[in-house]
């Protein structure tokens, strides 16, 4: 849709889908946190009252973004990125520790999590670099620069420790692949993840044996016309074994015990049934209760404010990472399907908008937005239903939290502002 002013040129389909997700998220936050003594939605001492306040701040952020010239975001993309890096570094001195992670600045009325701002900065900086006329992503030098932009904030966030937020930055690799990054890097990345998991499950010795057997099978059954140089293959095996040897060190020294326990539960690393059962009751408690809450909702759910597990606080931190379990219990299969449908339509619309951009910067930034939001969505839903380990990743626009909502909103509306500029120019 087009019209006069910054609001008239917005893609209102996306705005409506965004508003629906925020509203449904707030309704479920209200359900998980309302008590018998709470009477007003404007009670800012409650979680739902605070979230209502954060929605107001997000709305002010939208107005700011829409009244700024589109060129501002491209021109100052590097500044956004550098400010976010400085804020991440500052956490090591001035950071506030919550739930074992030093990831926030205490601003009194509000805890600022700079890793959320850094997602906006990284997406802008990557789009700015890739869209530069002098950048050729097929060259090793420019590939290295792009990797630094993505990995620097991730490496600063990892020791907080916050591996979940750190992992999100890897979603920006999809922007690189969309713009011509060699696809074999994706294969290397997937191979590294599989190698990491199999090393934890079976150990380096069995990984090495498996790689050697696989290589022998390839050389035995390949066609005579297919030439595979032996020396590079041996190099890959050697590097893989060295990587495998480093896995246990990383697992024991980078991840905290709570993270190690979650991986142990997810990959069935613990063979002692008594200890495994203890892990399920402690570390895996949230996921177990989340699954039970969704299961108890059935097809139509128990009804708004009628969720017994939600009311009984069976799922810890249900208003944040596990908010989707409240949807499952109170609104059932129909409710969860509706939310998934809304997110699906939202993502498809963003892809459509990204593909219609004539500006390289706008298209690349758009795919950065899509990658970050989709990654959050799949990891969060996977955690809630037990397919993935719990790593503390919120559901965009849905989970409780000021930093998340405000910076997710800015991430989105900067893209919509760039798109509205396309319409303004009649492109």
TrEMBL record:
GO terms for cellular component: cell division site; plasma membrane. It is found in: Membrane. InterPro entries: FtsW/RodA. GO terms for biological process: cell division; regulation of cell shape. The chain crosses the membrane at residues 12-31, 51-68, 80-105, 142-159, 166-185, 191-218, 230-251, 331-352, 364-391, 397-416. It comes from the Bacteria. GO terms for molecular function: lipid-linked peptidoglycan transporter activity. Its main location: membrane. It is a multi-pass membrane protein. Keywords: Cell shape, Membrane, Transmembrane, Transmembrane helix. NCBIfam families: RodA_shape (NF037961). This is FtsW/RodA/SpoVE family cell cycle protein. It comes from Flagellimonas oceani.
């Amino acid at each position: 849709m087009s019209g006069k002013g910054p609001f008239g040129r917005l893609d209102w389909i996306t705005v409506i889908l965004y508003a629906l997700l925020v509203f449904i998220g707030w309704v479920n936050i209200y359900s998980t946190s309302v008590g018998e003594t709470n009477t007003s939605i404007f009670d800012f001492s409650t979680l739902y009252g605070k979230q209502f306040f954060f929605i107001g701040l997000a709305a002010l952020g939208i107005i700011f973004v829409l009244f700024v010239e589109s060129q501002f975001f491209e021109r100052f993309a590097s500044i956004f990125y550098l400010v976010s890096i400085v804020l991440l570094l500052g956490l090591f001195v001035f950071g506030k520790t919550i739930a074992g992670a030093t990831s926030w600045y205490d601003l009194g009325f509000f805890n600022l999590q700079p890793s959320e701002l850094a997602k906006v900065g990284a997406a802008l900086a990557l789009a700015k670099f890739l869209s530069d006329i002098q950048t050729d992503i097929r060259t090793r030098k420019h590939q290295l620069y792009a990797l630094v932009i993505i990995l620097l904030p991730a490496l600063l966030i990892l020791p907080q420790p916050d591996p979940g937020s750190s992992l999100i930055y890897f979603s920006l690799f999809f922007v690189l692949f969309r713009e011509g990054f060699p696809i074999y890097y994706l294969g290397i990345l997937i191979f590294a993840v599989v190698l990491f998991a199999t090393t934890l499950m079976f150990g380096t010795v069995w990984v090495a044996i498996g790689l050697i057997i696989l290589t022998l099978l390839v050389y035995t059954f390949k066609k005579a016309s297919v030439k595979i140089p032996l020396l590079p293959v041996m190099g890959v095996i050697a590097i893989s074994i060295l990587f495998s040897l480093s896995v246990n060190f990383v697992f024991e020294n980078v991840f905290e015990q709570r993270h190690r326990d979650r991986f142990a539960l997810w990959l069935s690393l613990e063979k002692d049934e008594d200890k495994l059962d203890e892990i399920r009751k402690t570390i895996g408690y949230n996921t177990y209760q989340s699954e039970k809450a969704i299961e108890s909702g059935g097809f139509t759910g128990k009804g708004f404010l009628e969720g017994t597990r939600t009311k009984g606080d069976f799922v810890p931190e249900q208003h944040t990472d596990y908010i989707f379990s409240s949807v499952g219990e109170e609104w059932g299969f129909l409710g969860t399907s509706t939310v998934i449908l809304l997110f699906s339509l939202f993502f498809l619309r963003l892809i459509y908008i990204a593909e219609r951009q004539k500006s390289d910067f706008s298209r690349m930034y758009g795919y950065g937005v899509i990658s970050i939001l989709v990654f959050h969505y799949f990891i969060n839903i996977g955690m809630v239903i037990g397919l993935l380990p719990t790593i503390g990743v919120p559901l965009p626009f849905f989970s409780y939290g000021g930093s998340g909502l405000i910076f997710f909103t800015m991430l989105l509306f900067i893209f919509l502002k760039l798109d509205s500029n396309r319409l303004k120019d009649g492109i």
